[in-house]
Structures are given as C-alpha cells and as structure tokens.
TrEMBL record:
Coiled coil ranges: none
Name of the protein in its database record: 2-keto-myo-inositol dehydratase
Species name: Streptomyces dangxiongensis
Entries under Pfam families matching the protein: AP_endonuc_2 (PF01261)
Residue stretches making up the Xylose isomerase-like TIM barrel domain: 36-298
Matching InterPro entries: IolE/XylAMocC-like, Xyl_isomerase-like_sf, Xyl_isomerase-like_TIM-brl
Length: 302
C-alpha cells in the first residue's frame, strides 16, 4: 500500500466544538478540564479557544493549563454584525478586543470571525433577510477590512473570516463576492469544509481559485442524505446538527484528502482545525470520534 504524501505544511488541531461546546457555559457541555485532557489524549497538539469564557480567561492560568498538557493555541473566535454599519463599531470592538487580547496572550496568531446569523439557529426565527442590500455589503466588506487592520495593529493577529450556514457569507456566490470586495492584505478566509459543502460549495475549487486568500482551514464533513432532508424541510443550522448533518470523517463530503492536498500545494503553512459539530452530545461521545478522526487524517498524510 502506497504511503500518502506527507502534508508537511498542514498543522492539524481540534477545537471545543468537537467536544460539543457551543457556549461559554452550558450544563450539557463537558467541563473545560476534560476537554483539554481529552483533546491531547486523542492525539492533537493544537486547539482553538472556542466561545470566550469556556476556557479560563486569565492569560496566566490558561497558558499554564494548556502548556501542562503539551498543547498550543492556534486561534480565538469572535462573532460580528458588521453589515449593520459603523454605528455598531464600538460594541463590536469591545467584544473583539477582549478575545483578541487573550488570543495574543497565549501565543496564537489568528482570529476567526463568524458573521451573525440571519436565522436563529435554535428557533428558526427569521432575524433578518438572508440577502444583504448593496449598502449592507459595503458595510460588511469595509467593516471587515477595518477590523483586520485594527486587530493587526493592536494585537498582531491575522483576521480570517469563516463562511457559515445561515449567515450572509455562506454560498459560493456570497463567498466569492466577499473575497472580490475585500483587500487580501487586511482580511482572508477561514475555509470551513463542512459549512461550505452545507451551502453547496466546492472546497477544492475554492482553494484552487482563491488560493492566496485561504488563510486557515476548519475540517468537517456533511452527510449528503441528511443535508437533502434539512434543505427540503427548511431546517435551521442548530436543529440540523442535532439531526446529524455534520458527520464523522470519512463518511461524508467533501473528501478531506483532496482538500488537504490542494491546501498543501499552496506552499504556505496552514492550520487545519477539526470542528466536529456535536452540540448537544453525551459526554463520552467526543473522545472516540476525535481519536478516529485524528487517525484518519494521519492516513491522509496530515
């Protein structure tokens, strides 16, 4: 059997999301100590911070807890509503600066930005139209450029925007419009393979088309049969996850081997962080899945 080509530019990690963590505090989620213990046990060296407040927010304590387990942090995550215009900048910056300061303090170099949802991910309530106006697109793109500049100047972090189901940056058309309307020197993309497939996109084609804009990867897969039901029934993202729309690799789409190979060909170092959407889940469920996923990624050369 031929050995896979080593993907020596891909740095694999995992995230609290793969342990069913979506919120800073929720009784259905595993305690943060267990997450840190198990993510290392599963074979990962890199983690993300997850929702701000889940892991300790004191930089000294977080640094100590992470280092004690031989782990390193790749990124923090923030949520923004920049399409609403500059009136909300102060509120956005207060949230971003809090997360960015902790992210920088623990030695990470990226800040993942997720746009706000147009549909409530629990109740399916339509919060805003799914399509932005021309003015809102201008607010979104200029706001992200401003955020990228400010985050780099203040914290030395690189901004990567995460296309996400039920947000305004989701489909191939929306992602292309966003990238074509923003400056690569200020903002790039966190390509989430699962969300992009969920919204009908082709991750390999995106990497090959916009390679210079791919600054970070999230790895997950979609069950195409469940996805077809979700789309047909108009199910929002949260309940779709509970139906199992995001499935354990390598049982879904896209194939992760070709995605990782396309990323390797870019010739730059990239984080590839596993995000196995599992909220809510039984506390004993994540570790076996994470362990098998790490074994699978090694079989791909990562």
């Amino acid at each position: 059997m031929d050995r896979p080509t080593p993907l020596d530019r891909i740095r694999v990690g995992s995230a609290p999301d793969s342990w069913g963590v979506w919120f800073p505090d929720d009784p259905r989620q595993v305690p943060w100590e267990r997450f840190l213990d198990e993510v290392r046990q599963a074979g990962y060296e890199w983690i993300e911070l997850g929702p701000y407040g889940y892991l300790p927010t004191d930089p000294a304590r977080l640094t100590e807890e992470v280092a004690a387990r031989g782990l390193k942090v790749s990124a923090g995550t923030v949520f923004t509503s920049l399409h609403r215009g500059p009136a909300g900048w102060e509120e956005t910056w207060a949230h971003v600066s809090q997360v960015a300061a902790l992210t920088r303090a623990v030695g990470a170099g990226h800040l993942v930005v997720i746009p706000s949802f147009w549909r409530d991910d629990r109740t399916a309530e339509i919060l805003e139209p799914p399509e932005l106006t021309t003015e809102q697109w201008a607010h979104l793109t200029k706001g992200m450029e401003r955020l990228g500049h400010e985050v780099r100047e203040a914290y030395g972090l690189e901004l990567v925007v995460h296309p996400h189901a039920d947000t305004h940056i989701d489909t191939e058309a929306h992602v292309g419009r966003f990238l074509d309307s923003t400056d690569s020197a200020l903002v790039n993309l966190c390509l989430d393979t699962g969300h992009y497939a969920y919204c009908g996109g082709d991750s390999v084609r995106l990497i090959e088309t916009y390679g210079e804009r791919i600054g970070y990867l999230h790895l997950k897969q979609v069950d195409p049969d469940v996805l077809a039901e979700v789309v047909a029934d108009g199910v929002p993202f949260g309940p779709a996850v509970q139906r199992g729309v995001m499935c354990e690799p390598p049982t879904g789409v896209p194939e992760l081997g070709p995605v990782l190979e396309a990323a390797q060909k870019l010739g730059v170092e990239l984080f590839a962080i596993v995000e196995q959407d599992m909220y809510p889940c039984e506390p004993d469920a994540p570790l076996p899945v994470a362990t098998r996923t790490r074994r699978f990624l090694r079989s791909c050369g990562a």
